[in-house]
Amino acid sequence: MKCFCFFFKDKSKNKREANSDTVLKDKSKSENSARNGSHRSQPSPRTIPELYRENEHNLRVFSYEDLRDATHCFNRMLKLGEGGFGSVYKGTIKPADGQGEPTVVAIKKLNKLGLQGHKQWLAEVQFLGVVSHPNLVKLLGYCSVDGERGIERLLVYEFVPNKTLEHHLFTTALPVLPWKRRLEIMLGAAQGLAYLHEGLEVKVIYRDFKSSNVLLDENFKPKLSDFGLAREGPTGDRTHVSTAVVGTYGYAAPEYVETGHLTIQSDIWTFGVVLYEILTGRRTVEKNRPTREQKLLDWVKEFPPDSKRFTMIIDPRLRNLYPINAARKIAKLANSCLAKNAKERPTMSQVVENLKQVIAESDQASTSQNAKSSPKMAKQGPKRV
């Protein structure tokens, strides 16, 4: 999936040597100074850099040598994946005090893309250094080195072993992802987004919600990852954040693409896109399909949730092992998230409650179906040998 990015260049030069603490603290101080210069008659919400300064002690600062050794010199055999901003390796780190068992981790090594690569790294450190939720990936530490060979920026996360929702949803060689599990993954992801939108002093706009950024642990519990594009939401009387348009083609909200105005509702749009991905088993854009079916959101409009033809869009790999009424409700929820008028979209808390209801109804439908089939099995009696 191609990413579209438009950034302004920064002409400042890196100093030869700068350690991780200096880089982060200088950034926080500069942003705080700008805020403190304003009139103090009314207390304003604290920013992410301010909140980060209270929590930075929870992150471990690694040397480059630590992480090089942890990955056996970034061995290709340990590479877990590669994205637009860097490669991720599986590694093993020793406890900071040298006592106890080593910990398996995921280590992201950012590409040397200059200042913008550093901005992505800094955003992840500060946002993940502040947030704490079971449905968000946990950042354990980081490394920042500016040397003669250029900048080195690395991040150390908890290891999440089951890859991504994208991997399990679209890899045909894998067992099909069951209906209820799909809903539970989306519920966990929605709870993570609701926390970002409503659970902190400052609203956080994730800006990069997509199936490839939903990691799955050993129990298929989802964890949102990759916070390099996250932004603080608007405060006070502001209705939006003006920013360069970045993201993944096919996921970004139309009003954001057209105007650069970023809001909480932008995340809700992308959630609606992924809801249709789990319903259909199709990617948001698939160029190898017939022209009318290449763009997922255009295609599904031909099959409204209340129509008789609606079942034609459901992932055929589910083999009818899903309650049709629940599927219709998921499509309606997706449509509400995809409302053209951003103000008409539900909040993530409302999305969470809707998903809980659909999961409960799916459980009831499954229980009812099992009850109906049980007497038939009983009448058959034991098989003769």
Automatic annotation (TrEMBL):
One of its GO terms (molecular function) is protein serine/threonine kinase activity. Keywords: ATP-binding, Cell membrane, Disulfide bond, Kinase, Membrane, Nucleotide-binding, Serine/threonine-protein kinase, Signal, Transferase, Transmembrane, Transmembrane helix. Residues 15-50, 362-385 are annotated as: Disordered. Signal peptide: none annotated. Pfam families: PK_Tyr_Ser-Thr. Residues 15-32 have a biased composition (Basic and acidic residues). It is a single-pass membrane protein. ATP binds at residue 109. InterPro entries: Kinase-like_dom_sf (IPR011009), Plant_Ser_Thr_Prot_Kinase (IPR050823), Prot_kinase_dom (IPR000719), Protein_kinase_ATP_BS (IPR017441), Ser-Thr/Tyr_kinase_cat_dom (IPR001245), Ser/Thr_kinase_AS (IPR008271). Its main location: membrane. GO terms for biological process: innate immune response. It is found in: Cell membrane. Residues 74-359 form the Protein kinase domain. Residues 33-45, 363-373 have a biased composition (Polar residues). GO terms for cellular component: plasma membrane. Belongs to the protein kinase superfamily. This is Protein kinase domain-containing protein. It comes from Rubroshorea leprosula. The lineage of its organism: Eukaryota, Viridiplantae, Streptophyta, Embryophyta, Tracheophyta.
